[in-house]
Amino acid sequence: MLTDWINESNISIVEHTDGWQSAVALAVQPLIDNGAVEPRYLQAIYDMHREIGPYYVLGEGIAMPHARPEEGVNRTALSLVIVPDGVEFHSEDNDPVYIIFALAAIDSNSHIEMIASLSNLFCDDEVVEKLRGCQSRQEVLQAIREY
User: Fold this and answer.
1) CATH number for the 2-146 domain, one of 1.20.1250.20, 3.40.930.10, 3.90.930.12, 3.50.50.60?
2) Given phi > 0 = left and psi -120 to 50 = alpha, else beta, which region is 17?
3) How is the chain split into domains, by residue range?
4) pLDDT band at 57 (very low <50, low <70, confident <90, very high)
5) CA atoms of 103 and 114, how far apart (whole Å)
6) What pLDDT is stored for residue 147 in this prediction?
7) Are 75 and 111 in contact (CB under 8 A)?
8) Which phi-psi region, left, alpha or beta, contains residue 86 (left: φ > 0; alpha: ψ -120 to 50)?
9) Mean pLDDT of the chain
10) What is the C-alpha separation between 98 and 22, in angstroms, rounded?
11) Using CA atoms, how far apart are residues 86 and 58, in angstroms rounded to an integer?
């Protein structure tokens, strides 16, 4: 269940951000705060984005910024930022992005189940719209539970 990973301490709803860097930073911050990743993890995402573009924009309106386990991951974790106004990630087909899940994975296998749950969620346009409209962390958790 995604609610095993997402809780009130790692959900943020922000009306607006100053671009993709600040959106990614907002998403990664709870993972830094709770020790799941080292601060350098955020820089690794930025560096990879600069090298290969927005590789983590997975579908219309959805991004899942992440870097490799050796880039400072201490344990598998997830956080969520919702930006109702949307953010431009320079992803031709999928901008603007409204839902940002930051993912930290300790290795390439331990998070498979989480990724499977997330990708099912991503395929459901209704859920994306519903999450985008949430006003509170409780509403977000409710929407994920119902899903």
Assistant:
1) 3.40.930.10
2) beta
3) 2-146
4) very high
5) 10
6) 78
7) no
8) left
9) 92
10) 13
11) 15
Q: How many residues does the chain have?
A: 147
Task: Judge contact between 56 and 102, C-beta under 8 A.
Answer: no
Q: Is the pTM of this model over 0.85?
A: yes
Active site amino acids: 66
Give the model confidence (pLDDT) of 109-133 as tens digits: 877 778 888 888 878 888 888 999 9
Query: Residues 45, 26: contact at Cβ < 8 Å?
Result: no
Distance between CA atoms of residues 20 and 145, nearest Å:
28
Type of residue found at 23: A
Angle, alpha carbons 108-54-15 (nearest 5°): 105
Q: Are 98 and 136 contacting, i.e. CB atoms less than 8 angstroms apart?
A: no
Contact, 4 vs 145, CB < 8 A? Answer: no
Q: Is 116 helix (H, G, I), strand (E, B) or coil?
A: helix
Tokens coding 146 = 């119902």
